[in-house]
Design a protein that fits this description.
Elements: H1 8-11, E1 33-35, E2 41-50, E3 53-58, E4 64-68, E5 72-76, E6 83-88, E7 100-105, E8 114-123, E9 126-137, E10 140-152, E11 159-164, E12 169-174, E13 192-197, E14 213-216, E15 221-227, E16 230-235, E17 242-247, H2 265-274, E18 281-283, E19 289-295, E20 306-311, E21 316-322, E22 329-335, E23 343-348, E24 354-358, E25 364-371
Parallel strand pairs: 1-22
Antiparallel strand pairs: 2-25, 3-4, 4-5, 5-6, 7-8, 8-9, 9-10, 11-12, 12-13, 13-14, 15-16, 16-17, 17-18, 19-20, 20-21, 21-22, 23-24, 24-25
């Protein structure tokens, strides 16, 4: 099903368009971060009984669906904080930052109750990632169907956030699995964002025929969210240049030859030859950005039209206010810095409440943030 063919030559036929840096850029293209006011916000812990949760979603049952790296998929009642186990995936192998990671629900869940998850396991003794589709029935998950397999995994740099587009395609982020050269290797699925149909087949309009690859040159993308048909991603840099990217069909995002913007002599040359897409935001020093969501609700009006980003290293929630076109970040505000520890992912309810999971390794929390 997957023909990993000579794709780099095809990439060279794509149009090059360099992103312009904002006028708010400082010495490395960073938008200054300012403390955000919590005067008009409320926050409370719904539960502290999680262990390394990775994904949190608002479910069709009006509960929060959560994955934990050890293999558990659970739902949490936002009114009580009560946790109900949905499924424990016994073939999950959690090593370091690996394990059960991304999850997304079918957008028409009432009629098609499908749950898509991605996780690491041992395949003949080799640490590997696969994407599996389950059917939700009787309060549990049944009928697993493997959609993608043989994606390199490691104890770091797994990426693994999932999103479904408005036209019902499944997008999967994969980090370089701690081997940076994989990101530019078109014969290797690591360091890529992949796009498949919901049955696992490869869309005919993918940029590289016969391949699920949508974009390449990624180090460790841990956030993914659609805003209309525009796809935003957050990505961990190495020692510099954590990024927010707009994901564009067939584009090269530079790693490991480019970190952040194309702003050194070597990077400029590589970017021109390889049509590298630059981020719309970069951070140096690094902040370790993870889960990403988009806020467009009146319940917290000051956050409307913003990306919300869960941050691990700086233990904070960042509000990234977008410009009117959605192509750049105008201001960045920090919330709850240091209050709850490392923040992994975000979900938003239909009534505008924001839910954050932590990744501290013990007594991990689900936090609810609302407007007063």
């Amino acid at each position: 099903m997957r023909a990993w063919i000579a794709l780099a030559a095809l990439a060279g036929t794509l149009l090059f368009s360099a992103c312009k840096k904002s006028s708010t850029d400082n010495n490395n293209g960073n938008t200054p971060e300012t403390p955000g006011s919590t005067a008009e916000l409320t926050d409370k812990v719904l539960t502290d009984k999680l262990t390394f949760p990775w994904e949190v979603l608002w479910g069709p049952d009006n509960k929060l669906w959560v994955t934990e790296r050890g293999g558990k998929i659970s739902s949490i009642d936002p009114s009580t904080g009560g946790i109900t186990l949905i499924k424990n995936l016994t073939d999950v192998v959690s090593q370091g930052e690996g394990g059960l990671l991304g999850m997304v629900l079918h957008p028409d869940f009432a009629n098609t109750p499908e749950v898509f998850v991605a996780y690491n396991y041992s395949k003949g003794g080799t640490y590997t990632k696969k994407v599996v589709k389950f059917t939700y029935s009787g309060g549990t998950l049944i009928n697993p169907v493997v959609l993608l397999d043989n994606i390199p995994a490691a104890s770091t740099h797994n990426g693994t956030r999932l999103a479904i587009s408005p036209d019902k395609k499944l997008f999967i982020t994969s980090g370089d699995a701690a081997t940076s050269s994989r990101a530019q290797d078109m014969n290797n699925p690591a360091g890529k964002i992949q796009r498949i149909n919901l049955d696992g087949s490869i869309p005919a309009d993918n940029p590289f025929p016969g391949s699920p690859v949508w974009t390449f040159g990624h180090r460790n993308p841990q956030g993914l969210v659609f805003v209309g048909d525009r796809l935003y991603s957050s990505e961990h840099g190495n020692a510099t240049d954590d990024e927010i990217n707009i994901i564009q069909k067939g584009r090269n995002f530079g790693w490991p030859n480019v970190e952040g913007y194309c702003n050194t002599a070597d990077e400029k040359g590589f970017c021109q030859v390889n049509q590298v897409a630059e981020p719309i935001q970069a951070w140096t020093p690094t902040i370790a950005p993870s889960g990403l969501d988009y806020y467009n609700n009146n319940a917290i009006p000051q956050w409307k039209g913003s990306l919300l980003l869960a941050v691990l290293k700086n233990s904070e929630l960042l509000q990234l206010k977008l410009n009117a076109e959605g192509t750049g970040v105008t201001t960045i505000s920090s919330f709850y810095k240091g209050k709850y520890g490392r923040m992994r992912d975000i979900a938003i309810s239909p009534d505008g409440k924001v839910y954050i999971i932590t990744s501290n390794g013990g007594n991990d929390k689900l936090i609810e943030v609302g407007g007063k």
